[in-house]
Amino acid sequence: MPEEFDPAAMTERFRARAAAVRSRGIPPIEGPERKRFVEQAQLDFMDYAMIGDAVASLEEGVLTLRVDLRPDADAPWAAAPPGAPPGAAG
To answer: In whole angstroms, what is the distance from residue 29 CA to residue 33 CA?
Structure first.
C-alpha cells in the first residue's frame, strides 16, 4: 500500500464515478439488452454513491469504510436511479 494513499480522495473519486454513471446516456439498444444496461447502471450508481458517501479511515494499514444505510431523503442513492422516470426514487 503506497504511503500517499488518501481515503478521502478515494471516496471523492467514487462520488465522481456515481455522478458519471448518473449523467451518462443510454446507448441505442432495445429489448432485453436495454433492460440489462439500465439495471446495471442502477447498481453501479448505488454502489459508487454508497462508497462515495462513506466515512473512510486508514489505521495501521486497515482501510475502514463506514456507510450509514439508514433511510435519508438527502442521500445520493435516494434520488431516482439512471433511466428511471422523473420523480421515481431509487
So the answer is: 6
Answer for the pair 52, 18: CB distance below 8 angstroms, yes or no. yes
DSSP β-bridge partners for residue 66? 55
Q: What is the pLDDT of residues 9-63, one digit of tens each?
A: 999 999 999 999 999 888 898 999 999 999 999 999 999 999 999 999 999 889 9
Amino acid at 71: P
Q: How many CB atoms sit inside 10 A of residue 75's CB?
A: 15
Output the pTM of the full model: 0.67
What residue ranges do the domains of the chain occupy?
Answer: 7-76
State how far the Cα of 84 lies from the Cα of 90, in Å rounded to an integer: 8
Report residue 89 as a C-alpha cell: 426514487
Helix (H) or strand (E) holding 62: strand 62-66
Kindly report the number of other CB atoms within 10 A of residue 61's CB atom: 7
